[in-house]
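Today's session is about reading a structure prediction critically. Students often jump straight to the picture, but the first step is always the sequence itself: look for stretches that repeat, for charged clusters, for runs of hydrophobic residues. Only then move on to the predicted structure, which in these notes is written as discrete structure tokens rather than atom positions. Here is the chain we will use throughout the hour.
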Amino acid sequence: MTAGERAETAVQGPPMVTAGIDLAGYSGTTGVCRVTWAEEPVIEFLDARNDEDLLAAVRSADKTGLDSPIGWPVAFTALLAAHQAGTKLPERSRYVPHSDGRDGLRRFTHRLTDDLAWKRTGAGKRRPLSVAADKLGVVAMRAVDLLERLADEGPALPRDGSGSVVEVYPAFALIQWGLARGTATRAPNRPHSPRGPRSSPTSPTV
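Below is the predicted structure for this chain, in token form.
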């Protein structure tokens, strides 16, 4: 089979289906969109009444972008473990400074993925919300529960973006695509998300 024939076969194959979930702590403010990437893409807004609706959306897609943290900072979990055990607490510290001289994010409150996304996307002064010390933690609790329920049907889902579900960071993605300025956290004429910017698809547990 020639390269041209292989390319034609690939085009004739079933179109890729992706889903995006704007996850909230409660179903009432969660949104789901699914795109079938045919020659004429089909966009659907799906029900998000409960977790079963979200699981169904994930199962219907080849790849799902989940707008939620799916892990906590390593230093934060170490702090909790030491506190519960009554042992010496880890020292407070920050990640390496920003290239413009500003301090890096705090290791207890932010993951390494948060710090790297903030520095590499030109996100300006607005820093990611903390999954460890903000109401965003409620969203993350729901997210990891969904991932666990999906894993009940087979192997555990990887959290580094290589599996069928990947953590996404819409605010920083808009900056990378040139659709928002580095100081912006939302597109023009769109309501501000209460969660603000967060993280890009990378390992959420560091």
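Discussion point for the tutorial: The first strand starts at residue 17 and ends at 22.
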